[in-house]
Amino acid sequence: MTTPTFFGYGSLVNTSTHTYQGHSPARVTGWRRVWCHANTREVAFLSVHRVDGGQIDGLVASVPDADWAALDEREYGYRRHPLDPAHVQLEGPAPQDPHIYQADPDMIQDPSVGHPILLTYLDVVTQGFLRVFGPDGARAFYTSTDGWGPILDDRAAPIYPRAQTLSTQETQFVDQQIALLPSVIQQL
Fold this sequence. Notes:
Elements: E1 5-8, E2 24-36, E3 45-62, H1 69-74, E4 78-82, E5 88-89, E6 98-103, E7 117-118, H2 119-143, E8 145-146, E9 151-153, H3 168-179, E10 185-187
Parallel strand pairs: 1-6, 2-8, 7-9, 9-10
Antiparallel strand pairs: 1-3, 2-3, 2-5, 4-6
Helix pairs in contact: 2-3
């Protein structure tokens, strides 16, 4: 029996937000990350879209006993899709039965003032990329992500349910990357 795996490209890269084991850095080709929103959510969230020549870094991790229920619940609003193992690059053996989560393309729109990106969500994702891929890999997260929109500064009162405490250096890194974006910062 094979152990299925998932490719995490956002908050799942931050292993402080989950307990999935057997994770390793990976790259998926043919996809890019995108910020989007759906009317079922008040804030923007990360998804992926297919792009010829696209590639994104993230983590591959195993789903013990093929029990997708908890991960599917965490990733509500997304559809789980099988990935071609040939499109998943990592050190070591190819992942078994890899999957990726994507928001329903027919149900999403670009981030908006009414559906901003939460800064604490962006903090969590960036912290994960810094820990796994270092500063260059974290900068690549920003440049390999489409759909940047307004960012709501909720650091003083986190709205994101998996918010983490960042070090001063991590916070400064996020703030430096935001300064390079076309995004507008909104205050709570």
